Amino acid sequence: MNVVSGETWILRLPFVRESRDTEDAHHEIVGVTLHSDTGETGLGFTWCADYPAGSSVKALLDDFLIPRVVGQSALDVSKVWHDLRAVTHRLGYGISSFGIAAIDIALWDLKSRSNGHSLARELGQVVSSVPAYGSGKGSPTLSLDELVELSAGYVEQGFDAVKIRVGLSPANDVKRVARLRAELGDDVKIMCDANERLDVATALWLGRRLADFGIYWFEEPVRSDDVEAHVRLAQALPMPIAAGEHLCGIPEFVSYLNAGALDVLQPNVCMVGGITEIMRIGHLAAAHGRAFAPHVFSEFHVHVAAALPRTTSYVEYFPWIDAYVEEPLQVKGGELVVPDGPGHGLRFTDNTWDRYRIA
User: Fold this and answer.
1) Residue 73: domain span
2) pLDDT tens, 182-241?
3) Cα dist from 144 to 22, 141, 175, whole Å
4) Quick one: DSSP state of residue 250?
5) All residues at 6 or more sequence positions from 113 whose CB lies less than 8 Å from its CB, including other chains
6) Is the sign of the CA dihedral 96, 99, 103, 105 positive or negative?
7) How many domains is the chain partitioned into structurally?
8) In the structure, what pLDDT confidence band is assigned to residue 140 with cuts at 50, 70 and 90?
9) Residue 8 falls inside a structural domain
């Protein structure tokens, strides 16, 4: 089964109010549809967060990556991935990783669909559901009452953990977490995500105060390219340090692990180069005895986690894309049910294509 053609597209989707920092926040989904000589298709995409930069990734896909893939076997996913990584090596990470991710996800979708398998089964599925935490409803711009109400809603769904965002106003964050702990009780895990907003001194100040409320992890307290800062925080603070959503490949995770800087690895499948690479990162986490908690896009990560059950601590359940897809993920008892249909199962609605496609 060979790839005979591919087309690219961009969807510019509004971000959910409960998580955004600004009123006009949008994300661009840069996608690839691959066609095989057997008539099967595979869909993959990558994610340009916050800024309209999707055309840059689309140009790399159109001009170089897709022509490189056409004519190759759709079953040789790993071979194609390593070839694309090698020929883009001098471009570094970043845009090349984003483009490779879109193709890799499409190839895995194509391969598993042609075999009549779900993506999870194609990857070596072990479990039928995976643990998740409620996320995406904890913006620092929410009122305290709304933050409590939305977080409690996740607990009512059966989730035993929720995540909120901090960092815009550290002193106020302490009050917000204190109220949330009082309302949710001691049995619910609370994660705090600073989105790289803090310097080391402020992160230490905030982390020590958040420790009083037993937070489960402190996520991205400082910039993701500052490994040494993460080391200092990991040594000084009592809670686990989590990061990885802004890292673009396994070498960056290796640097963090070698330095003892992370307790929880949080790769994003769209940023690291696709399913092939995130599976490697999951095995890396297991080899180092670290938790694996992939970031956003639970629609893909639920399949990955189902094949890495002893490694995965949590999948982030962030349902911002639910309004745009035909079959949103199902939640049962605070866990995500692994889809059993062919491929990864994510397909956008006709209305989404008609309304939000910009290229």
Assistant:
1) 3-116+349-356
2) 999 999 999 999 999 999 999 999 999 999 999 999 999 999 999 999 999 999 999 999
3) 18, 9, 9
4) H
5) 40, 41, 42, 342, 343
6) positive
7) 2
8) confident
9) yes
